[in-house]
Amino acid sequence: MSLAPMRPYQKKSVNEALACLMRKRSPINVVPTRGGKTRIAAHVIGQVTGRAGWNVGAFVHRVELLKQASLALSREDIPHGAIMPGHTITSHKVHVASIDTVLARLSSGCSDTARWLLSLDMAWLDEAHHAVAGKWLRLAEAMAKALLFGSTATPFRSDGQGLGDVFHEAVRGPSMRELIQAGYLADFAVLAPPTRIDLSTVKTRGGDFAQEELQALLDNPDFIRAPLRAYGRFAQGESCVVFCAGVAHAEATAEAFRAAGWRAVSIDGNTPAAQRAAALDGLADGSVQVVTSCDLISEGTDLPEVGCAILARPTKSTQLFMQQAGRPLTPHTDKGRALIIDLVRNVAAHGMIDADRPWTLDGGVKGLERQVPGTIRCPTCWRVIGSAEAGELCPSCGTKYPARTAIITPGDRNAFASVGRLAIDDIHRLPLVKVLEHVTSRQHIATIAKIKGISDKAWIERTAKDRRVG
C-alpha cells in the first residue's frame, strides 16, 4: 500500500518529539482529532528503534485502538508483536499492548511481563489525556527507565489534573481550523434543532452527568425519536453515527431508525468484536447507514466514510464533546462538508469544535478549555456558528439574528483593568498562553483569572512565581 507523504506539521511533530526524547525528556504531542497522531507516533517509534535500538511499548486501552496502532506500524514497515488476550511477548523490539492485559498479567505475578516492562526504553501512550489516571500511573511505575511519549487531541481533563505530572514538554501541532483550511480535515456545519430536555435535576459524578440518571431522563419516546427526526430532515441517506447516553438508549435509538426503514445497528463495549467491526465496515460499504453507540467510537476510531455525527448525549466534558463531534471530519473523496447535529446543547456549553482552546500542562485549573468565544444559533434553520464570526445575518438562510447580549456587561468592563496592551476583548479572545506573555504584575494575573473564569487562587500564585512578578 502506497502511503501519502508525511504532512509538514507531522514531520515537525516527529522532529520535535525526537529532540525531546534525545534530551531524556518525555513529550506529549497534541494534534487535532483526525490529524494523524498515530502516524506521527509510528514514525517516532521507527526512529528510536531503528537508530537507537530502543525497546518500545505502544499502549492503548481498547482492542480497536490496538488494531489501528498495529496497522500504523505495519504501514511504516515496523516489525512488532502484540500483547493482548491470546498473544504473548515476542523477540520484537516493538510491541503494541493492551494496558488492561499488561496490568492483569503483572498483577497475577507474570515475571515475563515484569521483565519486559523493565526493559522498555520508551512507552507510547495513546489517548494520553488518560496518563494521570490510576491504571496508567501503575503502568508508569512498572517501567523504571522508560521515557514516555504521549499523543492526544484533547490535552485537558474535566477534573483539572495537569498532564505535567507525567510529561515534561508539549509538542503542539496546528489548530483544527488550520487543518481544515489546508484541506487535511473536512469542513463542517453545526445544526442544533431544539429539543425538550431539562438537565437541572441530573447529578454530576466524576465530572460529568451521572450516566444512569442521564439515561433515565432521555429514555422517553419523544427524545429517542429526536435523532431520527433530525436525520430525516437534515442528513437523509448519509452515513451517520449517533452518540447516546447509555447502552439501552443506543439500542432504543437504533430500533427507532430501523422501524422507520433505515439500516441501523447499535454497538457498545459489550458487543462482540466481530460484530462491532461488521457494523463499522457496514458504514464503509453502505450496508449500514446509521450506527448508534455509547462511548465506543468516541476516541481514536477512524471513520472516513461518516458524513454526519448526531450528539444525543449531553456532557460536561469538553474532551468527550470534541472526540465525538470530531468523528466525521476525516476528508473523503465523496464527502463535502461534514454535518454535526447537536440535540443536547453541547456546542452551546463547550463552544465550536474548531475554537482555539487554551491549555497548560500545569494542574489545578478546571474549565480552562471552555474559555472560548460563545456561539449563536439561527432561530430559523438552527445553524450554529461562533459568535466571533457572526454578522447580522445567518450565513445559511439569511435570517437576521436577534439582538444579542454581550458576554461582558458594562459593569464587568468598568471592574477590570487592561493587561499591558491587551483590552478586555483581547483577553477573552486570545489563548491563555498568549495573554500571559503580557503580564508584568501579580494584579495582571489576577485580572486574567477573573476574566477567564479561573477560580483557583493557587494558580494565580504559581503563575506569578513562574513569571517572576510580584
Automatic annotation (TrEMBL):
InterPro entries cross-referenced by the UniProt entry: Helicase/UvrB_N (IPR006935), Helicase_C-like (IPR001650), Helicase_Restrict-Modif_Enz (IPR050742), P-loop_NTPase (IPR027417)
Q: What molecular functions are annotated in GO for this chain?
A: ATP binding; DNA binding; hydrolase activity
Q: Which organism is it from?
A: Paramagnetospirillum marisnigri
* Chain ranges of the Helicase C-terminal domain: 227-369
This chain's protein is named Helicase C-terminal domain-containing protein
- Any Pfam family: Helicase_C
The GO cellular component terms are: cytosol
